[in-house]
Structure formats: structure tokens, C-alpha cells
Write a structure and sequence with these properties.
single chain, alpha/beta, five-stranded parallel sheet
């Protein structure tokens, strides 16, 4: 296991005292933020391949992905999100959902994954159990020729604060007063130089 951790270039803020503490405690006393291990490697490598609507592919390098993640992390921190908070992602697996996931972990918060197929009642249950502070979602989902509302399900579920991403360039609906568009949310990160760039630990 030590060899595997080395091969994977896992970075620890506090190294584990040992690999296994019987009966089943792995890496005792270790502290790490796994996003640090994702980004503190070669910056030129392709980190993400994104399929575009016209069928072409867009390649993001590791440093491009990091820059996008840093902006969302700065906006999260500006919103008061950090260790001890739970932030939900209720949207399809898109390039931006990867960015959001990494940013939530970066600031030390817990990610709550909610399937975009869940009903409003199922979403409400997940939000109640996790005591979610903030939710990221899309206005709708495109499945072939069908457009399936998604944000309205979050509203029906009683989500207190939602950040809404557009599925097709611009939001297709208005959001509640307590919610905001993804673009408005990212405006919080305009003062990125003030962002505490260290990784946080839950």
C-alpha cells in the first residue's frame, strides 16, 4: 500500500502513522485534501475531455481545470462555505459538475451527490439527512428531443439556497429571490487574489 500511495502521488498534510490499524482503520491520523493530489502534479497533462453539442471534443489541461476550480472555490468561500458544511450537486455529469465537485472538496466541505433522476420527495430526503447548505443544479436536462425540468424539482423539494446553471447557454427560467444563477454566483470570485488558496480539511 505504501508503494501504491507513492505511485498515485497522494499528498498528505499529515502523513499516516501506519497503513492499517487493526481491525479496520486505514491510514490512522492522516490528514489530506485529495484535490491537492489532483492538481500538484504536471500541469500540462490533459485532465478532462468535454463533448460539445456539435460533436467535437474540448480538452482541458490540468492547469485549466485548476483555474476553473479555483474560481468556484473562491466563490464558495465568499459565500461562507467551508469545513463542516454540506453542498449538494443535483445535475448531470458535465464538465462544470466536475469543477464544482473539486471546488467543494477544495474548501473542505462535504459533497452530497443527488441523482438528476430523483423525484422532489427523494431530493428532499437527501437534503434533510445531509443538512445541505447550498445546492448546485441545472435549469433543465436535455435527453434527446426532450427537455426535462430540474430546478423546479429542487424548489418543490424545499431547497433553501440554489445555484442554477443553464443547460443551453442561458437560463430558461427565472429563479427565486434566495437563489442565483451560476454567473452571478461566480461574480463573488472576482477578487480571487484575496482567496485563501490553501486546501482545507473537513
Amino acid at each position: 500500500w505504501s508503494h501504491i500511495l507513492s505511485e498515485l502521488q497522494i499528498i498528505f498534510a499529515v502523513p499516516p502513522q501506519r497503513i492499517l490499524e487493526l481491525p479496520n482503520r486505514w491510514l490512522p491520523e492522516a490528514q489530506l485534501n485529495i484535490v491537492q493530489s489532483c492538481f500538484e502534479r504536471s500541469q500540462g497533462e490533459v485532465a478532462l475531455v468535454r463533448g460539445l453539442a456539435d460533436g467535437s471534443l474540448e480538452h482541458w489541461s490540468r492547469d485549466q481545470l485548476k483555474a476553473r476550480t479555483l474560481r468556484v472555490a473562491a466563490a464558495l468561500q465568499a459565500a461562507g462555505i467551508g469545513p463542516g458544511d454540506a453542498v449538494a450537486i443535483a445535475m448531470p455529469m458535465t464538465a462544470e459538475s466536475v469543477v464544482i465537485y473539486l471546488a467543494i472538496v477544495w474548501v473542505g466541505a462535504a459533497v452530497v451527490s443527488i441523482a438528476d433522476s430523483f423525484s422532489a420527495e427523494e431530493i428532499r430526503t437527501r437534503l434533510d439527512i445531509s443538512e445541505t447548505t447550498l445546492v448546485f443544479t441545472q435549469d433543465h436536462i436535455v435527453r434527446g428531443s426532450k427537455t426535462i425540468p430540474l430546478y423546479p424539482r429542487l424548489v418543490e423539494a424545499g431547497s433553501q439556497s440554489v445555484v442554477v446553471l443553464p443547460a443551453d447557454g442561458a437560463l430558461s427560467l427565472a429563479v427565486r429571490e434566495q437563489d442565483q444563477s451560476y454567473a452571478d454566483f461566480l461574480d463573488r470570485a472576482d477578487s480571487v487574489d484575496c482567496f485563501q488558496r490553501e486546501f482545507f480539511f473537513p
